[in-house]
């Protein structure tokens, strides 16, 4: 007798010849009729339709070069937030997510292959403070003023107007550099995708 995954099981030897020994594993709750050689399985159904809670959030499966990235709980939360904000548009791929200002401001950067979003989570529901399509993102750089650290985004208007330069304050220069670096990476990926000719287009 042995236990596997909490289910008590028994080994039954139901037949033997010169070539092999036939062995059947019966889990508790099942019944084997050794005389007729028929295995009866009792199916247990739950009437309350209870579904166990998810152990961990869905992960991002599109890594650099198409490789599968290591699971990260924070990035899984970022992916869930992205698809909650874009109404489950799975054609938009998650890239990166990080908190850039701590409480009480609670500012976070959320990047996909289409948008750069700056979000505040200090209220009950997350609110988008800044949303820029990568086609309109011209530049991103790190600035420091009066002891504070900022990432400045150069954003082109929809009608090709003069550049707007919104700034996002971060808790440290390292966080500002992270936002600028990942925004530049997302912008490069977007333009490479736009200008890549697929075999069907040749």
TrEMBL record:
Organism of provenance: Spodoptera exigua (Beet armyworm)
Protein name, entry field: Uncharacterized protein
Domain of life per record: Eukaryota
């Amino acid at each position: 007798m042995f236990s596997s995954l909490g289910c008590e099981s028994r080994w039954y030897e139901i037949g033997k010849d010169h070539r092999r020994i036939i062995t059947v594993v019966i889990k508790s709750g099942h019944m084997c009729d050794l005389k007729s050689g028929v295995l009866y399985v009792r199916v247990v159904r739950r009437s309350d339709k209870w579904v166990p809670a998810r152990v961990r959030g869905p992960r991002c499966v599109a890594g650099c070069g198409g490789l599968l990235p290591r699971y990260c709980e924070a990035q899984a939360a970022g992916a869930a937030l992205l698809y909650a904000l874009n109404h489950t548009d799975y054609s938009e791929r998650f890239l990166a997510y990080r908190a850039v200002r701590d409480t009480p401001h609670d500012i976070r950067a959320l990047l996909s292959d289409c948008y750069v979003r700056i979000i505040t989570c200090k209220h009950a529901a997350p609110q988008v403070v800044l949303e820029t399509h990568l086609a309109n993102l011209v530049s991103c750089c790190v600035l420091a003023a009066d002891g504070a650290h900022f990432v400045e985004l150069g954003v082109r208007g929809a009608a090709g107007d003069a550049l707007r330069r919104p700034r996002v304050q971060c808790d440290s220069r390292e966080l500002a550099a992270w936002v600028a670096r990942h925004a530049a990476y997302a912008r490069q990926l977007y333009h490479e995708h736009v200008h890549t000719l697929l075999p069907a287009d040749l």
